[in-house]
Amino acid sequence: MRVAGVLGAVWVAICVVITALSPSASAASTAVTIGRTADDLPIRAWRVGSPDAKRTVLVVGEIHGSEPAGRAVARRLRAMRPPRGVALLLVESANPDGGRAGTRWNGHGVDLNRNFPFGWQPIGLPFDTYHSGSAPLSEPESSAMARLIRSVQPRVTVWYHQHMRLVDRSGGDPRLERLYARRSRLPYRSISPLPGTATRWQNHAYPRDSAFVVELPAGSTRAPSTVTPRR
User: Fold this and answer.
1) How far is CA 113 from CA 5, 143, 189, 227, in A?
2) 120-144, pLDDT tens digit by residue?
3) Model pLDDT for residues 7-22, shown as the tens digit of each residue
4) What's the burial of 231, exposed, middle or buried (CB within 10 Å: 0-12/13-18/19+)?
5) Of 42, 82, 88, 106, which has fewest CB within 10 angstroms of its CB?
6) φ and ψ at 77, to 5 degrees?
């Protein structure tokens, strides 16, 4: 099943998870630049909802430039009216270098999802598939995201990837992970723990919050398909 066939259910699922945090609505949106990339492109975050909201949901559409489908979810969420007491923080791309080039890495040839501090290991050389950088948070993009997360401490963070078609048991709140999986009609499964990932770092550093990975199917967001209901 291609990604276009599940995006509707994925959209419903993220809305349900957000609404589960609080029951009514408010709105307003602003964009800020939270950092710049290795190639000096801006990394932007959109805030939707009240700046005084008690809970924030962070959505990251892309960290690997070769896995761009989640950007469509982040773009669509800009038009959402979040529940009262909840604000959305939307980073369409945490890796604009890779997004522009259509590659996994940033401009330094680093896999940003191996560059976070928890469990970091030196892996490979620049532009090797999983090259983890010279040190934890060596890259401007991962540093910018870590600063943002430390500052905001989002109650929930959803990181979109491709192409495994599942919701990962990422070590966050299993109630929210299962809720997302059920409403998105994606399987709820475990990916073996990997070194230096954003979700492992978040869940270790902020155990009261919850970060998890949604792996969308392969393919274009524009490709026609049908949704097969799942339990």
Assistant:
1) 26, 12, 19, 29
2) 999 999 999 999 999 999 999 999 9
3) 556 556 666 676 666 5
4) exposed
5) 42
6) -65, -20
Q: In the chain, how many domains are there? A: 1
Whether residue 227 lies inside any domain: the answer is no
- Using DSSP's 3-state secondary structure scheme, residue 86 falls into strand
CA atoms of 125 and 229, how far apart (whole Å): 42
Under the phi-then-psi rule, with left for phi > 0, alpha for psi from -120 to 50, and beta for the rest, what region is 58?
A: beta
CB 87 within 8 A of CB 47: yes
Residue 199 within any structural domain of the chain: yes
Residue pair 3/216 in contact (Cβ under 8 Å)? The answer is: yes
Query: Which residues are paired to 158 by β-bridges?
Result: 59, 212
Q: How far is CA 7 from the centre of its chain?
A: 15
* pTM reported for the whole predicted model: 0.87
Distance of alpha carbon 197 from alpha carbon 139, whole angstroms: 13
Residue 229 domain-assigned (yes or no):
no
Q: Which structural domain range is residue 197 located in?
A: 3-217
Indicate whether 109 belongs to any domain.
yes
Q: Residues of 23-45 as b/e, b for ≥16 C-beta within 10 angstroms?
A: eeebeeeeeeebbebbeebebeb
The larger pLDDT score, comparing residue 147 to residue 82, is at: 147
CATH number of domain containing 38: 3.40.630.10
